[in-house]
Each structure stands twice: as C-alpha cells, then as structure tokens.
Amino acid sequence: MENIEKKMREEARRLLEEKRVDVLIGYEAGTLPLTATPCFITAPEEAERLVWNRFCNHNLAKYVHDVISQHRNSQKRVKPEDRKKKVVGVVARGCTTRSIVIHLQERQYGRDEVVIIGVPCTGYADRRKVSQALGGEAVLEGALEGDVIRAVTEGGEKKIAVADVLADNCRTCRFNNPIISDVMVGEAAPPMNPEAEYDEVTAFENLPIEERWAYFVKEMGKCIRCYACRQACPSCYCPVCFVEQSRPAWVGISDDPSDTQVFQIMRLYHMVGRCVDCGSCVSVCPMGVDLRKFLKKLDKDAFELFQNRAGSSLEDLPPLSRHRENDNEDFIYHPEIGGHNT
Amino acid sequence: MSENEAWEPKIVAIVCNWCTYAGADLAGISRIQYPPNVRIIRTPCTGRINPFYIVKALQQGADGVLVSGCHPGECHYLTGNLSARRKFAMLKRFLNYLGLEADRTIFTWVSASEGERFANVIRGVTEKVRKLGPATKLVKSL
Question: In chain A, which among 29-48 make CB contacts under 8 A with chain B?
Fold first, then answer.
C-alpha cells in the first residue's frame, strides 16, 4: 500500500508538472486520527500531501462532477471561442471509475476532461465498525500497520484487523480494480467475494411481505432527511433535485412518515442502473439507515432483467436509457388469465 | 351497514392518449358496463409517466394504481411504451420488495380497438384491489 502511495504521488506530480491536469483530486490525511479527506491539488510540490490507505472511503467522482460543472457554469458568459477547458485529474479505485463511466455515459463531461489515476483497491474500513470495535471511545492517536489498525483511546491501546472492519460493500465488491484509467499504479488487486453479493437481498426477499414493510418503515423512521446521502452520491447531480422542486412539490415536507418514505423510495428508484455500490451514502448517513439493502435490490433486478451492471463498461448503456423489443414482460397483467405470469 | 361494506376501492388509472384512453372511449360508446371505481388520468404516452406519479398516487390514498398503454410495437411515438416497460418492471419489483402488495400496482396494455378488454381489465383490477382491502401502507394521514 505504501508502494502505491509513493507511485501515486509520483504520477500526480508528473501530471501537474506536465500540465496535463489543472487540478488533481485525491485523498490527504484527515484532521482526526484514522481518517482521510478529499484534497484538491494544483501545484506539483503539493503532491506529497496525497495519501492512499484504508480510510479513503469517499467516492471522488462526485468532486470531479462538481469541479467540472462549476467551471462550465463560470464559463457561460465567455464567448464560445474563448472558453477554456478544465482538466481534472482524479485518484480512482473501482467504484470511482464506475461512477465516472456513468457520468461519461450520461454526457456530463468528455473523456478528455478527466485524467484517471487508477488504483487497485482492497476495500476500506467502515468508520462505524471501527468505532464499534473501540466501544465508541474517541480515538486519540491511531496508525495503520499493514493490515492492522492500532488505535489509542482513553481506555488504552487496541489493535483491530482491517478485515474485521471492512465495509459491507467492499467485502462483496466485484469491481475493485479500475474499469478505465489513464495511468495505473500498482498491481491488480485480488478479487473480493462477489458470489455473496446478493445474499442479503435474497434473504430479505424471502421474508414475509409484512416483515419487509415493517423493516422498511423502521429504517426510514430513522431518516431525518438531511439529504447527506444525496449530497455524497456521485449519481445525484441534478441541478435542482426533485425534493427541492416546488412546482409541482413532489415530496411533502410534513413530519408524516410517508413523506420520508416517498422521498427515500424515489431517491432509491433514481439509482436504477446507476448505483455503483460505493457505500458513500451509507458512510455519510448520520442515522445509520440501511440504504444498501434497498440499493442492492435495484442492482440485482437490473442485472436479472437487463443483464446490466452499473458503470461496468463504457459501451454498456444504463438499462433505462435503452430497450429491446423482447424485454421481460412477466409483470404485465392479462385480464384473460386474471393475473400476470409471475 | 358496517364500515367495511361502505368502502369501495379507489383506483387511479394512468393511461396513454392513443390506445387505452381510446379503448376506454370505445368501451363507453359500446355501452359496456364496468365498475365505477376507476379515475382515469390521460397522458400523452406511457413513456411520459414518471414512476413518481404512481408512488404519489399511493401516498395520496389510492388503493390501487393501473398503468396502461399501447401494446409493444404499437406506440404512437414508436418506442415510448418500450422504455416505460423497463421502468415499470423495475418499479413493480422494487415496491413489492419494500413490502407493498404487488396487486396495488398493475401494468397492462389495451389498444384502441379493445373496449371489451378495457372493461375486463377494470373488472379484474377492481376485484384484486377489493380483495386486498383499503390501502394502509405509505398513505399520508394528514
């Protein structure tokens, strides 16, 4: 991992020196121990700030989109022939590149506007699990020693194996190596455990319908509608989100539980064929809502019905933006037989 | 009369202008009887129907939502119903996964010449929803 970090800094420095990128987005050490935070680098000597470790959990594609769209907006009043292009470099693992693929497919920016430093990934540590392992105590000092996290709290020193606190989405990750990249650092990472990808979903599907609904109500009851999930999600980039639209006002703002449920249903539904399971929404949720259980279902269905995995290749367009004549029709109601086929 | 007997299912039918709406028209002209539980909303095409409409109708107290358009291959806009089919396949499965009964959201095709089929669909859907009883999930109570 240190090797990757060193090479990543070298590549970042080179890209900035050669002026191939205007800004480079990567991770730097966070202000608290055992954290990392996104950073934006514009000068080659700043490349030393970059880090790559088990705490880099953000999906940086979000910032790529933000930076490019902000720059585009600032160029609106410039004559077309005088407009400048801004090229963004980004440190990207598997899920980040999948998000970038989705942006490219949805024509948010051009391939020439982004330079990808691909990094193989072996999963990141879930901060909630780390905190749980430490009994909720604040970390005073911490370091990563290979695959072991050493943390000092008021109660003393503790050692946690990274494998025990790996985020759920990383455990069953199918695409932990970058899908597309301009520069690769490091060797391809060994695969995780994609066979178990839908185990949780299948188990939930087999529950009785009332239990499923009760679970959904319970989870959504926690939601305080801070919209952190939307803010962190690379696929949520609409200039005006449906929750803020007032004509028509799609979602009510009362304290009735159904308003929150409707908001969540629609935000989740917007992720059909667009959720790359990067875990951003889950990791930023202050209330710990189990969003992944519902998002993974959409992913499973999109694959079952349309053989599509979000952002898995540039050619494979999102499932809802295309169609076939012989698409699955089992859910269609037939009055003659008084039901549908499934 | 008990409260349950007084209850009648309320069904929102979101239909396309070119096929199902014309089919409903034909059912009317042909004087075919069908249950009066359905409220029809006309849209240009099923492809124009935002899945949000369905969720919103359920939230506002509809006991069932029916979406109907042209048969695949007969869309006035050529492929509107084909994109709609994909959207609704995902939506129906997803709502059912969350715990909403599958029979509350029903999708079908009715062409402009199928007045009889339209009446049959309404009869069938009303019966299905009647069996489920009044909607309680996702309904806004205020």
Answer: none
Task: Look up residue A294 and give its two tokens.
Answer: 């519902």
Q: How far is CA B115 from CA B6, B68, B88, B109, in A?
A: 29, 13, 24, 12
**What are the beta bridge partners of residue A27?**
A38, A51
d(CA B64, CA B33): 20
Please report, rounded to a whole number, the percentage of residues in chain A having pLDDT higher than 90: 73
**Tell me, what's the pLDDT at B4?**
58
Q: Which residues of A touch B93 (CB under 8 A)?
A: 297, 301, 331
Distance CA A151, CA A153 (A): 6
Residues in chain B: 142
The answer for residues whose C-beta is within 8 angstroms of residue A14's C-beta and 6 or more apart is none
Task: Report cis status (omega within 30 of 0) of the bond before A248.
Answer: yes
ipTM score of the complex? 0.92
CA distance A164 to chain B (A): 30
Q: Is the pLDDT of residue B2 over 60?
A: no
Q: How confident is the model at residue A341 (pLDDT cuts 50, 70, 90)?
A: low
| Residue bearing tokens 């069996």 | B131
Set of chain A residues whose Cβ sits within 8 Å of the Cβ of B120: 335-336
> A265 and B125: CB-CB below 8 Å?
no
**Structure confidence at residue B12 (pLDDT):** 96
At position B48, the amino acid (one-letter code) is: R
Place of tokens 């291959």: B73
Q: Are B14 and B67 in contact (CB under 8 A)?
A: yes
List CB contacts (< 8 A) between A214 and chain B: 99
Q: Could you count the other beta carbons within 10 Å of the beta carbon of residue A249?
A: 11
CB of A75 within 8 A of CB of A83? yes
CA angle A146, A152, A158 (to 5 degrees): 65
* d(C-alpha B20, C-alpha B4), whole Å: 31
- Tell me which residues of chain B, numbers 93 to 122, contact chain A at a CB-CB cutoff of 8 Å: 93-101, 106-109, 117, 120-121
Tokens of A16: 């900035």
Residues of A in contact with B71 (CB under 8 A): none
Give residue B1's pLDDT: 47
Cβ atoms within 10 Å of B134's Cβ, excluding its own: 15
pTM above 0.90, yes or no: yes
